[in-house]
Write a structure and sequence with these properties.
This protein has one domain: Heat Shock Protein 90. The protein contains three helices and five strands. The chain has a five-stranded antiparallel beta sheet with strand order 1-2-3-5-4, covered by helices on one side. The chain is globular and about 40 Å long.
């Protein structure tokens, strides 16, 4: 296994049909590091939920973009999904999330990953960052 980090930045239109491109980039990274199939499936689900939230909630029109940053480190994968839309910061406790308004996706991500941060982006928009430790 390489001790170097790899960083990939992908910007997609904020449309559901482009989320697949993010999943394809993740699959390519999994081939570089040889993730177990179960880990890859979990990460694809987390990424899909994060991107879907940005596509559904960030913009009132189809004119926006979603930026996906992948950072593959020797022992972990960090994924950041950002938009420049309305912004969203969920309540601190999972029990406070309204599952009827997209909160279920965040609950799913929390169960899959080792670390999750959701914040407003400077200049507007949202930033969802998750981290998954990889087995050596």
């Amino acid at each position: 296994m390489s001790s170097e980090s790899a960083v990939i930045n992908l910007t997609i239109p904020a449309k559901a049909e482009y989320i697949t491109l993010g999943r394809l980039a993740l699959t390519a990274l999994a081939r570089v590091r040889e993730f177990p199939e179960e880990t890859l499936a979990d990460l694809k689900l987390a990424l899909t939920e994060a991107c879907s939230n940005a596509v559904r909630h960030a913009y009132s029109t189809d004119d926006g973009t979603v930026e996906i940053l992948y950072e593959l480190q020797p022992d972990r994968l960090i994924v950041e999904v950002c938009d420049q839309g309305r912004g969203f910061v969920p309540p601190s406790g999972l029990e406070e999330i309204d599952f009827g308004e997209g909160g279920l996706g965040i609950a799913i991500i929390r169960e899959i990953v080792d670390d999750l941060e959701i914040s407003e982006k400077m200049g507007g928009g949202s930033r969802l960052r998750f981290e998954k430790r990889l087995d050596s």
